[in-house]
Specification:
By secondary structure, this protein is an alpha+beta fold. It is built from 6 helices and 5 strands.
Length: about 180
């Protein structure tokens, strides 16, 4: 007996769904907007389908320099804001791979739309002119992405202000938690 329903094409494994294709097209349109602040506004109007609850963390990449009086001076190479489900994982990865370069872990913020929050923070930092071209890390040789000039970003206070602003816009609870260093 023949089926009366029209034949539906099955998706192959790894092939994006029509919803995912629409989302990719919309995000591609947003990235073509020349002004970063306008991109932020467009992102807020766009539904993010694959977002999740996670932690947005802040970390400084530093080199430690000792002077003749054996006092430590810290030379900041950049500041990063990234997301993870658990901040212990990136802490361990950086500690094990990057020898000779230190990372000072500062705060983390929990958010229901962590990917959107990270994107908004990065666009804001780019609009301020804080973007650093990626270059090989002196410790591991990997080009770490998404580091920004801490002096242009306003240092720790400036980055916290940007993150807390976008958390309030997204209607999320604003609470910075100090990240405990992993030994």
């Amino acid at each position: 007996m023949a089926s009366l329903q029209p034949p539906y094409r099955r998706r192959r494994h790894g092939e994006p769904s029509p919803t995912e294709l629409r989302r990719h097209r919309k995000l591609a349109e947003i990235t073509r907007i020349p002004n970063e602040i306008d991109q932020c506004i467009a992102l807020l109007d766009t539904r993010r389908y694959k977002d999740f609850r996670g932690e947005l963390y802040m970390v400084f990449r530093v080199t430690r320099v000792f002077d003749h009086t054996l006092q430590m001076e810290v030379d900041a190479l950049g500041i990063k804001s990234g997301y993870s489900i658990d901040t212990a994982r990136p802490q361990l990865q950086y500690r094990d791979k990057c020898v000779g370069v230190g990372f000072i872990w500062c705060y983390k913020y929990t958010c229901d739309q962590v990917k959107l929050l990270e994107c908004l923070v990065h666009l804001t930092l780019c609009s301020q002119g804080a973007a650093i071209p990626s270059y090989p890390c002196p410790g591991c040789g990997v080009c770490h992405r998404e580091f920004y000039l801490d002096s242009v970003a306003g240092g720790l206070d400036g980055l916290c202000g940007i993150i807390e602003f976008w958390l309030e816009v997204l209607g999320q609870q604003v609470e910075g938690i100090v990240i405990e260093p992993i030994d």
